[in-house]
């Protein structure tokens, strides 16, 4: 039986997913879904993939597949094919990452916006974060608490600009 805290967290997570989808949709982003099983692991040397051997039911040689560490490559193919604003709330898997704040399986928000610079994407993300904070704040304020620290909509003022 889930505890009250677990139920509260599950409901908050569902609200966050809904707010992320609504906020990005309002900004013109389309949600996409790419495969979790990929034929090759990610090429980042610091990320280690989980291997998931595929054994054909009707016979044939088994072949290795991998749980993706990020939907990046598949999403960039969609971007190149002409989808200008895309996002995905993807379950991703990273072998070897485990700590109090890291889990080998987690949800990652990945998004791409063709033709936008760093500042444009950051502005989009700031709107999403503000909407998420409002959805979770009891008073509907644009603030959140993590580890005893309070974050408010003033997070924008601390944003660094990209080098030109």
The CATH architecture would be: 2-Layer Sandwich
Low-confidence stretches: none
Order of helices and strands: HEEEEHEEHEE
Mean pLDDT: 89
Shape: globular
- What is the multimeric organization of the chains shown? single chain
The number of E-state strands comes to 8
Return the CATH class.
Alpha Beta
What fold name goes in the CATH topology slot? BirA Bifunctional Protein, domain 2
For the largest beta-sheet, the strand count, sense and barrel status come to:
3 strands, mixed
Counted up, domains total 1
Describe the structure.
The protein has 164 residues and is an alpha+beta fold. It has one domain (8-153): Bira Bifunctional Protein, Domain 2 (BirA Bifunctional Protein, domain 2), CATH 3.30.930. It is 31% helix and 24% strand. The chain is built from three helices and eight strands. It has helices at 4-26, 72-80, 118-136; strands at residues 30-31, 37-38, 50-54, 63-67, 85-93, 105-113, 143-146, 149-152. The strands form three sheets. The protein has a three-stranded mixed beta sheet. A three-stranded antiparallel beta sheet has the order 2-4-3, with no helix packed on it. Helix 1 (4-26) packs antiparallel against helix 3 (118-136). The longest helix has 23 residues, at 4-26. The termini are far apart. 15% of the residues are buried.
């Amino acid at each position: 039986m889930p505890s009250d805290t677990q139920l509260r967290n599950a409901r908050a997570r569902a609200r966050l997913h809904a707010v992320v989808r609504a906020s990005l949709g309002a900004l013109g982003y389309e949600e996409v879904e790419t495969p979790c099983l990929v034929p090759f692991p990610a090429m980042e040397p610091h990320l280690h993939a989980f291997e998931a051997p595929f054994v054909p039911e009707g016979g044939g040689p088994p072949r290795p597949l991998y749980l993706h560490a990020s939907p990046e490559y598949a999403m960039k193919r969609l971007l190149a094919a002409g989808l200008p604003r895309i996002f995905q709330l993807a379950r991703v898997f990273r072998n070897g990452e485990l700590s109090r704040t890291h889990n080998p399986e987690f949800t990652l928000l990945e998004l791409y916006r063709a033709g936008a610079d760093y500042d444009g994407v950051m502005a989009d993300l700031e709107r999403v974060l503000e909407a998420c904070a409002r959805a979770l704040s009891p008073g509907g304020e644009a603030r959140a608490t993590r580890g005893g620290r309070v974050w408010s909509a003033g997070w924008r003022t601390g944003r660094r600009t990209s080098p030109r």
